[in-house]
Amino acid sequence: MSAQAMTSDNPSGHPTRPKYCGAMLSEVTATRYVTPLREGGSLPGFVEADDLGTYVM
User: How far apart are CA 15 and CA 12, in angstroms?
Assistant: First the structure.
Protein backbone atom coordinates (compact mmCIF):
# COMPACT_ATOMS: atom_id res chain seq x y z
CA MET A 1 0.00 0.00 0.00
CA SER A 2 1.41 3.37 -0.94
CA ALA A 3 1.80 6.18 1.56
CA GLN A 4 -0.25 8.39 -0.76
CA ALA A 5 -3.32 6.12 -0.58
CA MET A 6 -3.28 5.99 3.22
CA THR A 7 -4.57 9.31 4.57
CA SER A 8 -6.78 10.41 7.44
CA ASP A 9 -9.60 10.98 4.89
CA ASN A 10 -9.11 7.47 3.53
CA PRO A 11 -8.05 5.16 6.39
CA SER A 12 -8.88 2.00 4.41
CA GLY A 13 -6.29 2.79 1.75
CA HIS A 14 -8.71 2.04 -1.09
CA PRO A 15 -8.35 4.24 -4.18
CA THR A 16 -10.65 7.26 -4.04
CA ARG A 17 -12.45 9.10 -6.80
CA PRO A 18 -12.87 12.85 -7.06
CA LYS A 19 -16.31 14.17 -6.04
CA TYR A 20 -16.99 15.17 -9.66
CA CYS A 21 -15.21 14.49 -12.93
CA GLY A 22 -15.03 16.37 -16.16
CA ALA A 23 -15.32 19.99 -17.14
CA MET A 24 -17.79 22.37 -15.60
CA LEU A 25 -20.43 23.76 -17.93
CA SER A 26 -20.53 27.49 -18.35
CA GLU A 27 -23.81 29.39 -18.16
CA VAL A 28 -24.77 31.78 -20.95
CA THR A 29 -27.95 33.74 -21.66
CA ALA A 30 -29.58 33.53 -25.08
CA THR A 31 -29.98 37.06 -26.40
CA ARG A 32 -31.43 36.50 -29.89
CA TYR A 33 -33.32 33.72 -31.66
CA VAL A 34 -31.63 33.43 -35.07
CA THR A 35 -33.55 30.77 -37.02
CA PRO A 36 -35.44 27.51 -36.50
CA LEU A 37 -33.84 24.28 -37.71
CA ARG A 38 -37.18 23.18 -39.19
CA GLU A 39 -39.84 25.06 -41.07
CA GLY A 40 -42.60 26.29 -38.75
CA GLY A 41 -40.90 25.16 -35.55
CA SER A 42 -39.72 27.26 -32.66
CA LEU A 43 -37.29 24.72 -31.17
CA PRO A 44 -34.70 23.45 -31.95
CA GLY A 45 -33.07 26.47 -33.48
CA PHE A 46 -29.99 28.65 -33.55
CA VAL A 47 -29.61 31.30 -30.86
CA GLU A 48 -26.99 33.94 -30.16
CA ALA A 49 -25.79 34.30 -26.59
CA ASP A 50 -24.29 37.01 -24.41
CA ASP A 51 -20.81 35.51 -24.87
CA LEU A 52 -21.09 36.22 -28.65
CA GLY A 53 -21.42 32.52 -29.41
CA THR A 54 -24.04 30.83 -31.60
CA TYR A 55 -25.68 27.72 -30.15
CA VAL A 56 -28.28 25.13 -31.11
CA MET A 57 -31.05 25.05 -28.54
Answer: 9
